Amino acid sequence: MPQGKIVKALSGFYYVQDGERLIQCRGRGVFRKNKVTPLVGDEVEYQADNDQEGYVLEVFSRKNELIRPPICNVDQAILVFSAVEPDFSTSLLDRFLVLIEANDINPVIVISKMDLILTDEVKEKVLSFAKDYEKIGYNVVLTSTVESTVGKDLLPILNDKISVFAGQSGVGKSSLLNVLRPELELKTDDISTHLGRGKHTTRHVELIAVGSGFVADTPGFSSLEFTGIEVEDLTYCFPEMHERSGNCKFRGCTHVKEPACAIKEAVESGEIPQYRYEHYLTFVEEIRERKPRY
């Protein structure tokens, strides 16, 4: 039986890419019975009735799966944050990083609009943040609004991978994709200056071929809540804390009030940025206050 990848799901149809062919498929009833919902990104076996139509017969095992947006087998998340308009937000970035780390997806931080920075003070601040995240081990890419540099900066990262774009609203995620694939003509809205964030423009999940890879143009993470993440999991989502947590005096240290905590010592010595630790504490509090679900 032929195999392919689901690149779009819309109104009960699954569009399976097999080389140059795109087959519009329905799911077999057995999926509903087994409570399996085929997702964009799934590698599947299908049966084609003709050149354009067929049925998905089997969904192969996934390496990861996101609920919002509904997509699977993602290799990396391109987290797009702007240097200005809207201003770079470490707290929102850290929230995204926790969600990405919890799903075992490799994050790439893209700081856009570097050419729109008007003062040296803001530029130094943004570069200092970039250095902090690089030191933790994250891949950080600085780019501008100039089309020729966007392609040069981003294409090598996207090749041969399934990437999901996410990040701040109004940072120009769709604009970046339009540069990489101009024929897409993805809808972009002006930034709502009143709210300081962009209006929502993207609607359904679809994998778009960019270079030799695929990019998911998705509605992003509509939920930024830490459902399913417990306090003891949170350290794993902060790599610089996870690598030091074995040095804490107490096993299972939450790095909040315990004595002889290696994380708090690293914050005091400047090895871990103060703002990262503060965000960690905020997230711990948020998880603890989460209402139990029955």
UniProtKB/TrEMBL annotation:
It is found in: Cytoplasm. Residues 63-224 form the CP-type G domain. It is an enzyme of class 3 (hydrolase). Residues 72-222 form the EngC GTPase domain. GTP binds at residues 112-115, 167-175. Keywords: Cytoplasm, GTP-binding, Hydrolase, Metal-binding, Nucleotide-binding, Ribosome biogenesis, RNA-binding, rRNA-binding, Zinc. Zn(2+) binds at residues 248, 253, 255, 261. Its cofactor is Zn(2+). Binds 1 zinc ion per subunit. Pfam families: RsgA_GTPase, RsgA_N. Its EC number is 3.6.1.-. Its main location: cytoplasm. Monomer. Associates with 30S ribosomal subunit, binds 16S rRNA. One of several proteins that assist in the late maturation steps of the functional core of the 30S ribosomal subunit. Helps release RbfA from mature subunits. May play a role in the assembly of ribosomal proteins into the subunit. Circularly permuted GTPase that catalyzes slow GTP hydrolysis, GTPase activity is stimulated by the 30S ribosomal subunit. Belongs to the TRAFAC class YlqF/YawG GTPase family. RsgA subfamily. This is Small ribosomal subunit biogenesis GTPase RsgA. The gene is rsgA.
